[in-house]
């Protein structure tokens, strides 16, 4: 079975040890997905698999067989070729060095879907309400798996709020 | 640092003290302090779109044919020698191209140490690397494996068997204090300051506090791991590196491998966070050596664990601060003594004892710091070196003193704020810390703070407010250069081997060049990040912006002269001297008669030139010798502490900064916030855990070393005085590091205000509040 990466079918690697992250970066040269810790602790390698966010460093490439993988390079862009969230990151300065940024963006796109689904989080007060209000605390909690060391946190949350407002979530 | 250095610095200061200000750099305030078009604006990062697309290329991402991947084996003991080494299984493993150990490593000189005397040196330690069987710290590399794939290299590394002969290592801080050494100087200052009989004033004072503050070993942990893609090409060396010291790395590698400086190229257009860590460490050197032996390109991308074993951090500190004051709060004595770890092979100072020398006027000082020499990895500079741990101790002590006197902590600072350098008596170039306090206090709502601790409660939560000063010195590096080229369409191109690791270097210097040369932004490009470009010093000491600004300013002066020469006599500018023209509308024009003007494109066209190129250089920073030049800040924190668990949640932070003029409001805000968030981590969670029995770092992952996550970071308000410093290019001082200073103290002071508990030992973990 093949792996669908940004719409292109690719063969899984011969070496079973290859992570999805290394497949992307070293084999396919899709280096927009970043390696920060290779241990699932920083979120820089976050990609979308069948629409859900996964840590590609903790995912073997073989586990992605038959799945649809989308990386930062494959996000649907608008007129200027940027996804609305990417545009919001630039506008709100939700980045400095830019290394955690693709992971933050992929993570936030899937997080928006989790919010829409009504998945509760650690800071959700009413688990029975059915619908969720995307407060800054909710966004922060849900984005806490994506570390940033430059300290762009405020801008990242601002950017995500902007996207949620634009898409009516 | 030596007694000789003290004598030289003292002599230069004495001479410069007598030189008229107008002769020195900044003698005439930079006209761009007020004449701003692009500067001071909100331009978004020019590399923002590439970064959000993942298209900005980092060092481990440079495509390379025939590449080998490196994996390291680290020593498991702190001191001794390698007795047995069996690499046969690794050599026989699939895909392995080379195993390098001290048996076959090429001869390499020790790294030339980073310092002010050689700006092309970047060594953080002066130890031989893989030249003998000796083990000098726990984590030192004992073998390098190169293989066709990363998986093969990592697996083969596990097959290497190393036997050690260990000897007793010195790895215990408490024990080491007994034999601590006392350096003569601390950066460019004398280490020991004894002025005005502090001991006696302490004994006689109406109010005093005397306490010991400790801060742990901390690591930078940029999200991009250290990485290099290395290739030897026809005897020349090309290193795509993640570095904040491009020329320092190139110069050092040339020295270590016996090459001409021109035969080493270091390229580093994007760095995924540095904070002081992205300098020259063993991994680049070993990667270059292995690439040479294997005669193939090599990629070194450190694992998070290897980063902790090979990249130094900020030393732990133990600081005693004693303050004495009158009943009206006037400081009578300031004593600041303490210890940090600095192995004898380590280069970087952690000058925490410098903090108390500039912030407050005081009648007497008794200051000195000592270093413990241990068998550990060398230190490195980490965001706000010195002042970051230093402000924790001094600013907690100020809060304690205010409480003892029964005075508002801001009022105590107001009564003692320095109006000139408290030690040398030199005038400030500009200083307005209390204006920063006033701005910050108003935004924060300081008037709502209750002086009595433990008075505000919401359920299980005790609410507290705290404040603290921050400070960091101004620095401008000599030698930093730019090439400014005007092309035949009159567009301007600025090039320098400067660094981008999130500061917005190119974004801001583009604004600067546009304003300096009288052009709109879209007619200026800035290229940085490669040693083939004109020399730039490191991105450190919050110096890069001022240094580049001085270089562009110098280049603009040369351009005027060259343009007038090229313009000749058939120009409306004919007869005007350089001082009589200014840049405007993409050309030169007469200051008195703006109708006399000619565009760059026209001047070049008439003179038959395709382009005009000049190099400008940042000269000797004599202004820092004549003037006391420090940025300051006022940090405010409101937090809550759970009475049940001891958990601290920071509700909000306000930082008000006095750093001269702000050049880009958007990127500056981000940089200040980023610094404060590192201070937040220092206050609450960050600690590198050392097993003192073995000298081995235990917290070698981001799951064990806790940096702030989104839920830890509140909304942060940033304000600034925007008062220009008349002695600096653009009226600006550096802003990269000051954000980190004073934050941990503001948080600890807020914890005291909330709970009445004074925790003097960072980080402020839950156990310390129960």
List the SSEs and their pairings.
The complex is a heterodimer of chains A (169) and B (770).
Chain A: E1 3-5, E2 8-10, H1 20-27, E3 46-49, E4 52-55, E5 68-70, H2 84-91, H3 101-117, H4 136-142, H5 153-166
Parallel strand pairs in A: 1-5
Antiparallel strand pairs in A: 1-2, 3-4, 3-5
Helix pairs in contact in A: 2-5
Chain B: H1 3-18, H2 48-53, E1 68-74, E2 80-86, H3 88-92, E3 96-100, E4 134-135, E5 141-147, H4 150-157, E6 161-166, H5 173-177, E7 185-186, E8 189-190, E9 193-195, H6 198-204, E10 207-215, E11 227-233, E12 236-241, H7 246-257, E13 264-267, H8 282-294, E14 298-301, H9 304-310, E15 317-325, E16 331-341, E17 365-372, H10 387-405, H11 409-416, H12 433-444, E18 456-458, E19 461-473, E20 481-487, E21 492-496, H13 505-516, E22 524-528, H14 544-567, E23 581-584, E24 587-590, E25 597-599, H15 600-606, E26 611-617, H16 623-626, E27 630-642, E28 648-658, H17 665-684, E29 690-691, E30 696-697, E31 716-720, H18 743-755
Molecular structure report:
The complex is a heterodimer of chains A (169) and B (770). With 169 residues, chain A is α+β, with helices and mostly antiparallel strands. Chain A has 5 helices and 5 strands, in the order E-E-H-E-E-E-H-H-H-H. Chain A has helices at residues 20-27, 84-91, 101-117, 136-142, 153-166, and strands at 3-5, 8-10, 46-49, 52-55, 68-70. Chain A has a 5-stranded mixed beta sheet, covered by helices on one side. Chain A is 32% helix and 10% strand. By secondary structure, chain B is of the alpha+beta class. Chain B folds into 3 domains: 59-168 and 224-272 and 278-310, Alpha-Beta Complex (Aldehyde Oxidoreductase, domain 3); 186-218 and 314-475 and 625-769, 2-Layer Sandwich (Aldehyde Oxidoreductase, domain 4); 476-620, Aldehyde oxidase/xanthine dehydrogenase, molybdopterin binding domain (Aldehyde Oxidoreductase, domain 4, 2-Layer Sandwich), CATH 3.30.365. In chain B, strand 24 and strand 25 (597-599) form a beta hairpin. In chain B, helix 10 (387-405) crosses helix 11 (409-416), helix 13 (505-516) packs parallel to helix 14 (544-567) and helix 17 (665-684) crosses helix 18 (743-755). The chains are: A alpha+beta (169), B alpha+beta (770). The interface between A and B is large, with 61 and 63 residues.
């Amino acid at each position: 079975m093949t792996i669908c990466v940004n719409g292109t079918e690719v063969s899984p690697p011969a070496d079973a040890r290859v992570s999805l992250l290394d497949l992307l970066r070293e084999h396919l040269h899709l280096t927009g997905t970043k390696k920060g810790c290779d241990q699932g602790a920083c979120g820089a390698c976050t990609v979308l698999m069948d629409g859900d966010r996964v840590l590609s460093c903790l995912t073997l490439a073989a586990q992605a067989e038959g799945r649809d993988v989308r990386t930062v390079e494959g996000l649907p862009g608008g007129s200027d070729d940027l996804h609305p969230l990417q545009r919001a990151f630039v506008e709100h300065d939700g980045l400095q060095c830019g290394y955690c940024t693709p992971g933050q963006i992929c993570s936030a796109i899937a997080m928006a879907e989790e919010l829409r689904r009504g998945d509760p989080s650690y800071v959700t007060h009413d688990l029975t309400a059915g619908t969720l209000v995307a407060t800054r605390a909710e966004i922060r909690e849900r984005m806490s798996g994506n570390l940033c060391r430059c300290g762009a946190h405020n801008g990242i949350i601002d950017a995500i709020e902007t996207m949620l407002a634009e898409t009516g979530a | 640092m030596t007694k000789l250095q003290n004598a030289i610095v003292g002599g230069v200061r004495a001479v410069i003290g007598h030189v008229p200000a107008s002769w020195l750099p900044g003698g005439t305030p930079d006209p761009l302090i007020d004449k701003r078009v692009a500067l001071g604006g909100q331009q978004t990062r020019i590399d923002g779109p590439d970064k959000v697309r993942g298209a900005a290329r980092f060092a481990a991402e440079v495509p390379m044919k025939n590449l080998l991947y490196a994996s390291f084996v680290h020593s498991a003991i702190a001191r001794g020698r390698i007795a047995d080494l069996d690499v046969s299984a690794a050599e026989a493993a699939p895909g392995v191209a080379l195993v390098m150990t001290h048996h076959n490593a090429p001869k390499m000189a020790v790294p030339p140490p980073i310092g002010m005397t050689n700006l092309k040196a970047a060594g953080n330690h002066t130890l031989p690397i893989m030249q003998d069987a000796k083990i000098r710290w726990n984590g030192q590399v004992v073998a390098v494996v190169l293989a066709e794939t990363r998986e093969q290299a990592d697996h083969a590394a596990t097959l290497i068997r190393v036997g050690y002969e260990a000897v007793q290592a010195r790895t215990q801080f408490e024990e080491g204090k007994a034999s601590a050494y006392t350096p003569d100087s601390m950066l460019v200052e004398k280490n020991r300051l004894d002025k005005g009989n502090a001991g006696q004033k302490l004994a006689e004072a109406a109010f005093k506090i005397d306490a010991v503050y400790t801060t742990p070993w901390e690591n930078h942990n940029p999200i991009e791991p250290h990485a290099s893609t290395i290739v030897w090409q026809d005897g020349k060396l090309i290193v795509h590196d993640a570095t904040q010291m491009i020329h320092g790395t190139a110069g050092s590698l040339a020295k270590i491998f016996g090459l001409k400086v021109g035969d080493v190229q270091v390229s580093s257009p994007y760095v995924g966070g540095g904070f002081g860590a992205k300098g020259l460490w063993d991994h680049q050197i070993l990667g270059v050596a292995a690439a040479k032996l294997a005669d193939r390109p090599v990629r070194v991308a450190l694992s998070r664990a290897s980063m902790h074993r090979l990249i130094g951090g900020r030393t732990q500190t133990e600081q005693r601060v004693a303050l004495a004051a009158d009943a009206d709060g006037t400081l009578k004595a300031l004593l600041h003594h303490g210890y940090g770890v600095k192995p004898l092979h380590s280069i970087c100072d952690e000058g925490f004892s410098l903090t108390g020398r500039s912030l407050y006027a005081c009648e007497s000082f008794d200051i000195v710091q000592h270093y413990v020499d241990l068998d550990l990895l060398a230190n490195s500079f980490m965001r706000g070196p010195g002042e970051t741990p230093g402000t924790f101790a001094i600013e907690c002590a100020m809060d304690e003193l205010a409480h003892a006197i029964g005075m508002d902590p801001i009022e105590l600072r107001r009564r003692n704020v320095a109006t000139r350098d408290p030690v040398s008596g030199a005038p400030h170039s500009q200083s307005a810390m209390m204006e920063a306090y006033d701005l910050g206090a108003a935004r924060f709502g300081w008037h709502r703070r209750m002086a009595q601790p433990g008075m505000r409660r919401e359920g299980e939560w005790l609410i507290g407010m705290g404040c603290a000063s921050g400070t960091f010195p101004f620095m401008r590096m000599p030698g930093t250069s730019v090439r400014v080229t005007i092309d035949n369409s009159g567009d301007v191109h600025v090039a320098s081997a400067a660094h981008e690791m999130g500061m917005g270097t190119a974004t801001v210097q583009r604004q600067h060049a546009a304003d300096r040369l009288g052009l709109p932004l879209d007619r200026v490009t800035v290229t940085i990040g490669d040693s083939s470009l004109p020399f730039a010093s490191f991105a450190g000491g919050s110096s890069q912006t001022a240094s580049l600004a001085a270089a562009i300013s110098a280049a603009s002066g040369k351009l005027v002269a060259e343009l007038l020469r090229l313009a000749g006599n058939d120009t409306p500018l004919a007869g005007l001297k350089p001082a009589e023209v200014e840049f405007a509308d993409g050309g030169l024009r007469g200051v008195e008669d703006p109708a006399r003007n000619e565009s760059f494109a026209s001047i070049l066209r008439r003179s038959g030139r395709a382009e005009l190129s000049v190099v400008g250089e940042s000269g000797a920073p004599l202004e820092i010798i004549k003037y006391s030049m420090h940025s300051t800040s006022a940090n405010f924190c409101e937090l809550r502490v759970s009475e049940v668990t001891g958990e601290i949640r920071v509700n909000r932070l306000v930082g008000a900064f006095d750093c001269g003029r702000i050049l880009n409001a958007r990127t500056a805000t981000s940089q200040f916030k980023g610094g404060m968030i590192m201070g937040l981590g220092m206050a609450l969670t960050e600690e590198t855990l050392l097993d003192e029995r073995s000298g081995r770092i235990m917290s070698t992952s981001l799951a064990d070393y806790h940096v702030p996550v989104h839920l830890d970071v509140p909304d942060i308000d940033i304000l600034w005085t925007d008062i220009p410093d008349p002695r600096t290019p653009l009226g600006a001082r550096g802003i990269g590091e000051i954000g980190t200073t004073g934050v941990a103290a503001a948080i600890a002071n807020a914890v005291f205000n909330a709970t009445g508990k004074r925790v003097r030992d960072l980080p402020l973990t839950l156990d310390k509040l129960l």
